[in-house]
Amino acid sequence: MSGLQKEAEVLSLFIAEKVVEDFNEYRFSESLVFKLLRPALIEKQNIYSTWRISFNVIQKGVPLFKNPSFDILNLPEEVKTAERGGNVWVLRRTGDSCYLRVAMPLDIFRGETVITFEKEISQLFEQRQKLIGYMLIFILAFMFIFVPLSLLLSRTITLPLENILSQMENFVSDNNFDTRKLSVFEEIRQLQKHFASLSMDISSQIDFLKRESESKELFLAKVNHEINTPITSIKGFADLLLRSPYDEQLYTKALSHISHESLRISELNGNLQKLVIPSDEYLWETFSLNSVIDDAVESLRFLFEKKGVRVEREKTARNIRGNLPLLVTAFKNFIHNAIKASFREGIIFIKAEESNGELKVCIIDGGIGFSGNRAEEANLYESFSGLGLALCDEILRLHKCHWLITPLKNGGTKVCLDFTTILQKEDKSDIPAIHH
Description:
Blueprint: H1 3-16, H2 32-41, H3 45-48, E1 54-59, E2 62-65, H4 77-83, E3 88-94, E4 97-108, E5 111-120, H5 122-172, H6 184-243, H7 248-276, E6 285-288, H8 289-299, H9 301-307, E7 310-314, E8 319-322, H10 324-341, E9 347-355, E10 358-365, H11 374-383, H12 387-398, E11 402-407, E12 413-418, H13 422-426
Parallel strand pairs: 7-9
Antiparallel strand pairs: 1-2, 1-5, 3-4, 4-5, 6-8, 9-10, 10-12, 11-12
Helix pairs in contact: 1-2, 6-7, 8-10, 10-12
Membrane topology: Multi-pass membrane protein
InterPro entries: HATPase_C_sf (IPR036890), HATPase_dom (IPR003594), His_kinase_dom (IPR005467), HisK_dim/P_dom (IPR003661), HisK_dim/P_sf (IPR036097), HssS/ArlS-like (IPR050398)
EC number: 2.7.13.3
């Protein structure tokens, strides 16, 4: 016989001898029965040990212990259910009071035993009823206050959108500032239309940024090529001098070439530094276009003489606005390309064409030119003169200047620069001019 069964036998003797009386006057946790049944109720003591409850122990319909108020002859349904196994929770109302009864089976006292607990929960029930009342009040308040307020707020938000749509319609309809009344569905349709337009603009901007990124990658590739070319040449001549016995003529030629390539790298570095500087940090001036062309031609004088090419000019008295060193660099690149493309003893024409207030400068050579088909023209714009043309394009873009290169019928190439675009004329208008 286990210790628990022995304790149950002792309990039965105590009950039989009526040692335990008025058990309902004590808390269950303070009772002798609780101490005896604790091993069986160890998992449930945290829940039921502090209840001031009616406590009953029934074994096969016969009470081992019961409160005076418990009618063992008229067993509640939950006790009968608990006898068959399983815990039962029942909520009962008696008058204004509400009780929670728990019945559970215990396999002790040499047979199936049911133990019941009962606790008054009237206060908790009243709190639940109050909570339900508060919820009903909140729902009614939401329906009669918050819903109209939400509709008013929604109208407050959509009204400015309607005004924006109206203003956009006015601008589109030839500055007609008459207001238009749109239905709700029409507003949505118009919003969808304008959002679609905005989406197209964003898509165009993305495509533009992609092209800019590709252009920068191509530009960097050209920079890398232009830098590596003179470096490779310098290294080659240096290795030649190291391997060859001293020869004054060879040394003079090699050192001259090394010096020339070093100057080329220095000039390239200077041009790149000019492009790295933000455009708002440039010195923008008003100066004569003739001064730009004069400086560019003079800096290339030795190439004209070396190839026997002549230059013929038509000057202009017009002034332009921009950064003088950058524009000189651009003209030097265009004229240098014209010299390289020209035949020996050829002629390069630099003409300033003025018509109806417009000013264009054209550089024309009589060289081999190109066919003018789209594929060759695209390739020409991408790779002609390596970094030179890319550098010119960047400089002219900063000056809001359009330029165009076209082939001539009888051979040769014509490059025209337009200095009278609207953007070029209006750009930097707030910066004081410095006249030369």
